[in-house]
Write a structure and sequence with these properties.
Oligomer: single chain
Number of helices: 16
Strand order of the largest sheet: 1-7-6-5-4-2-3
Order of helices and strands: HHHHHEHHEHEHEHEEHEHHHEEHEEH
Radius of gyration: 25 Å
Bound molecules: pyridoxal-5'-phosphate
Number of strands: 11
Shape: globular
Length: about 500
């Protein structure tokens, strides 16, 4: 038998050191030059083919691996680090956060638990979020992969609290009454996905109609709750949205808190978009009442621009949170001392092994200070109002929804009224603008009206970027009208 033993450490650390320095140099250039590049571009076939090669059985030098990436990865990324990316709802990342991810991987700790400094940082970040949200010190929370998982954790705690049975033992079939969850018809789809996965089915989510500002109608919520009670269904939880994905609408959280208190229901806030408004001096009033929630989902990878992934859920009643997820096999028993002592972080969510997500948040919050993030949030909202003014001032454009936050929904119309034609045209405008590399808007449909959607969640955006984008929209709209005339 051979005594040969090997490891993954490089044979020559000096080469790794040199290459790592090179990678950091390249990363700095990649970010400092971002404005000069396309937002996004289509991959050539050669690049797609490159990613179809079979598993590499034999080794190759790391500098070759890196060269391949330089050629095939960076030029074809999503573009959400670019100042003119405003599609769907992304954050735009930050360099300190990227360094944090690197240092976290070098530290290597598994944040499922453990008596480690990394766990202290994880706990500290959650404590900071509790403080910033106005939650009590003895509340609990956990960092998650993102908002979908944060909401799912909260809905599980809410369900177990209101089930009327030990649902961990009995399952949902043991519940004396079916439960209902309520949210506005603008609610993010992750809630339905969560309730489906939890076994309650999509029907357990009542989508309450929204008003003319696309906020949940409070009278309609009260009516739905009363009707369900009369039918023997148990109203369990209201999900208030602080910033909807479509338009950034903000539900009346104070009114929802009062209804939940009166009805003995759980009050959950999906604050993935808007919870961090609490940091923004000019707009924090928009989320008044969030501090009254039983649980809040928030998404550092959105308005804190933490590199993906980083979500968080806070739960006011720490015991209920713990009781929902606590689980230890024989191989993982807690101790008073040693490596496994202290708070076991996996007792607050689904995942056992957890990455050191906290570090990238911790480093950039310390470096920039919380107040700067608040100013950046106000800045994005100001930019959205600026875009709204530009849209409203141009007779060729039509504003489709009120701009309450940082999302602007509008379309190129220029007197056209046929909805099918408008949809076709604005879809084509979106695609051509994306393909030109000038900007990355996305689209949505509101009240049957298809439109472009510009979600300004980007610390690099400047007002001149919005002007450039509108010029591209207007020019593309005119081109399409010209093409239609030529083909008529
Ligand atoms: C309001 C809202 N809730 C939940 C989510 C889901 O968050 P994630 O994409 O981080 O899972 C989003 C995503 O945009 C969102 O806008």
């Amino acid at each position: 038998m051979s005594n040969f033993e090997e490891s993954l450490d490089p044979e020559d650390w000096s080469l790794s050191r040199k290459l790592a320095h090179q990678m950091v140099d390249d990363a700095v250039s990649h970010l400092s030059d971002v404005r000069e590049r396309h937002v996004w571009q289509e991959m050539p076939d050669a690049v797609r083919d490159f990613f179809k090669s079979p598993a590499p059985m034999a080794p190759q030098p790391l500098d070759r691996v890196y060269d391949d990436l330089r050629e095939n990865l960076f030029p074809y990324s999503m573009g959400n680090i670019h100042p003119r990316f405003w599609g769907w709802y992304m954050g735009s990342s930050n360099f300190t956060g990227a360094l944090g991810d690197f240092i976290a991987a070098v530290d290597g700790s598994n944040l499922g638990g453990g008596n480690t400094a990394a766990a202290m940082i994880d706990i500290q970040v959650v404590d900071w979020f509790k403080e910033l949200m106005g939650f009590p010190k003895d509340a609990s929370g956990t960092l998650t992969s993102g908002g979908s998982m944060a909401n799912m954790v909260a809905l599980n705690v809410a369900r177990n609290a209101l089930a009327g049975v030990d649902v961990r033992a009995e399952g949902i079939l043991g519940m004396p009454q079916p439960l209902r969850f309520y949210a506005s018809d603008q609610v993010h789809s992750c809630h339905q996905k969560a309730l489906e996965a939890m076994g309650h089915g999509a029907k357990s989510l009542t989508e309450v109609e929204s008003d003319d500002r696309l906020r949940m109608s409070i009278p309609a919520l009260e009516k739905a709750i009363a009707e369900d009670r009369a039918k023997g269904i148990k109203p369990a939880c209201v999900i208030g949205t602080a910033g909807t994905t479509n338009t950034g609408a903000l539900d009346d959280l104070t009114a929802i808190a009062e209804i939940c208190r009166r009805e003995g229901m759980w009050f959950h806030v999906d604050g993935c978009i808007g919870a961090f408004l609490r940091l923004a001096p000019g707009n924090k009033h928009l989320v008044d009442g969030i501090e009254l929630a039983d649980s809040i989902a928030l998404d550092p990878h959105k308005w804190l621009h933490t590199p993906f992934e980083a979500g968080c859920v806070l739960v006011r009643d720490a015991q209920r949170h713990f009781d929902t997820f606590e689980m230890h096999g024989d191989y993982l028993q807690m101790q008073e001392r040693g490596l496994i002592a202290g708070k076991f972080l996996a007792d607050y969510g689904f995942e056992l092994s957890r990455g050191f997500k906290a570090l990238k948040i911790w480093m950039s919050l310390k470096e920039n200070g919380v107040e700067k993030f608040g100013r950046l949030i106000d800045q994005n909202i100001g930019q959205a109002r600026y875009l709204q003014q530009l849209v409203s001032a141009d007779p060729r454009l039509e504003l489709i929804a009120p701009v309450d936050l940082n999302i602007v929904c509008f379309r190129y119309a220029n007197g056209i009224t046929d909805e099918d034609r408008l949809r076709q045209m604005n879809t084509e405008i979106m695609l051509r603008v994306q393909e030109s590399g000038i900007a990355a808007p996305s689209d949505t449909t509101l009240g049957g009206k298809h439109c472009l959607r510009v979600a300004i969640n980007n610390h690099r955006t400047k007002r001149k970027d919005l002007e450039l984008f509108l010029d591209a929209v207007l020019q593309t709209g005119a081109e399409l009208e010209e093409e239609a005339r030529a083909n008529a």
